[in-house]
Amino acid sequence: MNRDYKLLLKQHIGKPDIPCVQEGDWVERGERIALVDGRGADLHASVSGTVIKVDSENIVIRGEKPEHDVFKPLPPGDLRERIRSAGIVGMGGAGFPTGIKLNQEINGGTVIANAAECEPILNHNVKQIEANPDEVYRGLLYAMEAVGAASGIIAIKAKHRQAIAQIEKVIRDERITVFPLRDLYPIGEERALIRDTLGVLLPPEARAITVNTIIINTETLSRVTQAVELGRPALSKNITVAGRLRGGPKAQVFMDVPIGTCVGDLIEAAGGIDGDYGEIIMDGPFMGHSVTPDDVVTKTTGGIIVTMPFLQAKAPLGLLVCACGASEARMRELAKKMGAEVAGVETCKHAVYARGSLKCRNPGVCPGQADRVLRLRKAGAGALLIGNCSDCSNTVMSLAPKLHIPVHHVTDNAMRAMNLHLIRKLQK
Ligand code: SF4
């Protein structure tokens, strides 16, 4: 049966792509349909079919659900050109064009494969390593070759024993090691990873490249392998679908979902929504945003989570914003859905503006939250909505309950939908 696939022209940092097809054109899966404009990545048809709409934001293709192996291959080119022309972007959510990231020299530095998957509930990266560790491993070797790295690290939480065992089995190069991470949010944040794996705490304004390091998500590495070895462009995404679904609270992983697939179709494939729900989150509970069933999968989509209905707040909320969590705008949206006034907004004192957004001075290491909690109470907050990391949530919980201030966390509705422990006190 034919379906419509809506491919956004902007699925990466930088400007939207420029369409190079017209309505009525027939396109083959893998064919380039929009060209990069400055910094960005080309866009390729994720299905074969007829282009039924082109506008300034999207290209819509009517086509049949494709087979993984059927696509028009990329033209030949050297390693960097293959990666660039494949239109790959950071699939951990950042959307930084991989062709630009791997078009640098790091002079014998390190490539870190980021398998932290630090958002709760999501597990498509870990599943992918378990299913095809060699593809990720080869992608790391290609990335190291492209940038001139002397070493590679695969950073993955220690709790994922099976995935660690699988990837260790395929490592044949002594330059590559596995680094077991702690199970804390936001351990996969770029500077947190460098701190934990290399022992260097970068200032908020610094980039990984300043210590000759490149960090790249593991699914992105598998797409690099596919581009280099098969000439396969970025056409599909691995996605965790979870939450309030018929069949129970089990995270389901869908591999190779065509870019442009409707969120609603994916939820139906996972069993459909089970009764009333609060919202549909795209990506993880900390950093994700609310979407509708008509929104579509992009190159950076990691999760689709159907949450429990919102509990209504019984008092004005004080918002405590984390540099590595939900933005103030997202927290205000959540407060509204909880039927609450916002009494005040505070930002964690580790959060500073750098490179155009909030960054944490030392991600995941609590600087103390007592003054923020007291300031929010003074502003009239009768309850808190926090977006803090694991360690800071733990700190808030050592004070707020003593002051009889109830605490909500931005992840609550997603975690409740999965019957998981709420982000509050650190679990022993
Ligand atoms: S220390 Fe503060 S800003 Fe940093 S991750 Fe924790 S809550 Fe966020």
Uncertain runs with pLDDT below 50, 5 residues or more? none
The tally of beta strands, per DSSP, is 22
Task: Give me the side-by-side strand order of the main sheet.
Answer: 13-12-16-14-15
Query: Helix proportion of residues, in percent?
Result: 25-40%
Explain what the structure shows.
The chain is α/β, with parallel strands linked by helices and 428 residues long. It folds into four domains: 2-64, Beta Barrel (OB fold (Dihydrolipoamide Acetyltransferase, E2P)), CATH 2.40.50.100; 79-230, NADH-ubiquinone oxidoreductase 51kDa subunit (Rossmann fold), CATH 3.40.50; 236-306, Ubiquitin-like (UB roll) (Roll), CATH 3.10.20.600; 317-417, 3-Layer(aba) Sandwich (Rossmann fold). Helices cover 25% and strands 25% of the residues. The protein has helices spanning 79-85, 98-101, 124-131, 133-147, 161-170, 190-198, 218-230, 263-269, 328-337, 370-378, 390-399, 412-417; strands at residues 2-8, 18-19, 26-27, 32-35, 43-44, 49-54, 58-64, 110-115, 151-157, 176-181, 213-217, 236-243, 252-258, 280-282, 289-291, 303-306, 317-321, 342-347, 351-354, 357-360, 383-386, 407-409. A five-stranded mixed β-sheet has the order 13-12-16-14-15, sandwiched between helices. Strands 1-7-6-3 form a four-stranded antiparallel β-sheet, with no helix packed on it. α3 (124-131) crosses α4 and α4 packs across α7 (218-230). The longest helix is centred in the first third of the chain and has 15 residues, at 133-147. The model has no long low-confidence stretch (mean pLDDT 96). The site of iron/sulfur cluster has 16 residues, from loops.
